[in-house]
Design brief:
The complex is a heterodimer. Chain A is α/β, with parallel strands linked by helices. Helices cover about 40% and strands about 30% of the residues of chain A. In chain A, α1 packs parallel to α2 (about 55-70). Chain B starts with a strand and ends in a 10-residue tail after the last strand. The chains are: A alpha/beta, B alpha+beta.
Chain lengths: ~100, ~150
């Protein structure tokens, strides 16, 4: 897992590259939590265009981040999920808390 | 005559082996010419089953084995993921969506639900000597006349 980020227009953009499973979950959690401490953004967009695999462990990671940012009133959005990731998001209702944006 | 083939691998219950298990099954199933979607479904189901073993089967520092077996009979794939761990106390509960025995660990509790959605059947047998998950899927998108 490789995680890239940038801030523009008060938005923190995070690009997840690689596979999100049990093996990469801890690193992903820690890295995202560190990035989310940065100042100067009011919303987060997680770009999944470079995510080659994800299982339900990824849902746990994302819901955990949602709970942390909810307390700070910072919404998280998902963009560019693969059709496979989309299936898992719809199955778990993740879009209800992290809407998909284009 | 029926086409049949199988493979079996055993590896240590470490998360680093999840990717290996996925690739292993995907490479083996390619001989049935599945679609990309079908392969991704199978890889995800295998990942869920192996993750369960890695996370739950061996609670002590000493990690045991996971055996992954894949059998092909014509266009039917059956996959068994077996461990020799502590077993699942309540299988029915474990299969409920969003149920996790480790709520403090940010787990979605959707592992079995994902397996059930992506495969045609999922059977779980568990006792205090270990757990076996058997999943089957019929490959619809066979292109055997094109394959070599």
């Amino acid at each position: 897992m490789q995680i890239k980020s940038r801030i523009s227009n008060n938005t923190l953009y995070v690009l997840l590259c690689g596979e999100l499973d049990e093996h990469s979950a801890n690193y992903t959690k820690l890295t995202l939590d560190e990035l989310f401490l940065k100042p100067n953004f009011q919303k987060i967009v997680i770009d999944l265009s470079e995510l080659s695999f994800m299982d339900s462990t990824g849902i746990g990671v994302l819901i955990g981040r949602y709970k942390k940012m909810k307390d700070k009133n910072i919404p998280i959005y998902i963009c560019n999920p693969s059709s496979h990731a989309e299936k898992i998001f719809k199955m778990t209702g993740l879009y209800e808390i992290m809407p998909k944006i284009v | 005559m029926k086409y049949s083939n199988f493979m079996e691998v055993t590896f240590k219950a470490l998360s680093v082996n999840e990717g290996f298990a996925r690739v292993c099954v995907a490479s083996f199933c390619v001989q049935l010419n599945p679609s990309v979607d079908e392969i991704t479904d199978i890889k995800t189901a295998v990942s869920e089953a192996v993750t369960n073993c890695v996370v739950h089967a061996y609670p002590t520092a000493v990690k045991g084995d996971i055996t992954l077996r894949c059998e092909l009979e014509d266009d039917m794939i059956s996959i068994t993921v077996t461990d020799k761990g502590v077993g699942i106390k309540d299988i029915e509960k474990a299969r409920e969506p969003f149920y996790t025995s480790k709520p403090s660990e940010e787990r979605s509790g959707m592992g079995f639900t994902v397996m059930e959605s992506f495969m045609d059947s999922v059977e779980v047998i568990s006792n205090s000597f270990g757990t076996m998950v058997r999943m089957t899927k019929k490959i619809i998108n066979t292109m055997s006349e094109v394959g070599c």
